[in-house]
Design brief:
Structural class of chain B: mainly beta
Helix content of chain A: under 10%
Distance between the termini of chain A: 41 Å
Radius of gyration of chain B: 13 Å
Number of helices of chain B: 0
Oligomer: heterodimer
Mean pLDDT of chain A: 92
Number of strands of chain A: 11
Shape of chain B: globular
Largest sheet of chain B: 7 strands, mixed
Order of helices and strands of chain A: EEEEEEEEEEE
Chain lengths: 113, 114
């Protein structure tokens, strides 16, 4: 069956360091992969989308890589700040319009001073 | 734009009662999604609509759950009868299907069934 794995343990890092979150998947061939941020008591907020034919995508302090051979995406936040503390979800879609997303369970990031 | 609007924000009901959750998508979006989030199972897609037509309801847990989208600006998710295991946060999301699929989520409805 299709499976998306994100590290269920919280990631604790110091302010200013680079945070790296991992999303692994099995039995799936996504056309694209998305990353969302979720704060407590709120709905997920879209951050970045990367397509299967793209290796890397950047937006300000965020960088996403997508390796379809390894079936893995890495999400990096450089120069992390306490305001980056949240849960980060990866989501995979098979392609086409109005694609059905399958979400990972998310990784909680805590950035400390 | 006000974003996706959901009501109520919190709902507490007794087992066996009917529950109706409401969603207003972002104006101009033509796809709407209903999700359920729990600690155990994470964020699960229940059903989605494209141009007001249900496309995939394979995530709807059982016949007690039903969803409608009578027009482009309104959708409901109904649970009848409700059970304690339905307790979760229910999110509605919308998107413009030809823009790559990023979804815009509402604030969610926290449902507690006692």
């Amino acid at each position: 069956s299709q499976k998306i794995e994100q590290n269920s343990e919280a990631l604790n890092i110091q302010e200013g360091k680079t945070a790296t979150l991992t999303c692994n998947y099995t039995n799936y061939s996504p056309a694209y992969l998305q990353w969302y941020r979720q704060d407590p008591g709120r709905g997920p907020v879209f951050l970045l989308l990367i397509r299967e034919n793209e290796k890397e995508k950047r937006k300000e302090r965020l960088k996403v890589t997508f390796d379809t051979t390894l079936k893995q995406s890495l999400f990096h936040i450089t120069a992390s700040q306490p305001a980056d503390s949240a849960t980060y979800l990866c989501a995979l879609a098979p392609g086409g319009t109005a694609s059905k997303l399958t979400f990972g369970t998310g990784t909680r990031l805590q950035v400390t001073l | 734009d006000a974003g996706v609007i959901q009501s109520p924000r919190h709902e507490v009901t007794e087992m066996g009662q009917e529950v109706t959750l409401r969603c207003k998508p972002i104006s101009g979006h033509n796809s709407l999604f209903w999700y359920r989030q729990t600690m155990m199972r994470g964020l699960e897609l229940l059903i989605y609509f494209n141009n007001n037509v249900p496309i995939d309801d394979s995530g709807m847990p059982e016949d007690r759950f039903s969803a409608k989208m009578p027009n482009a600006s309104f959708s409901t998710l109904k649970i009848q009868p409700s059970e304690p295991r339905d307790s979760a946060v229910y999110f509605c999301a919308s998107t413009l299907s030809n823009q790559g699929g990023e979804q815009y989520f509402g604030p969610g409805t926290r449902l507690t069934v006692t």
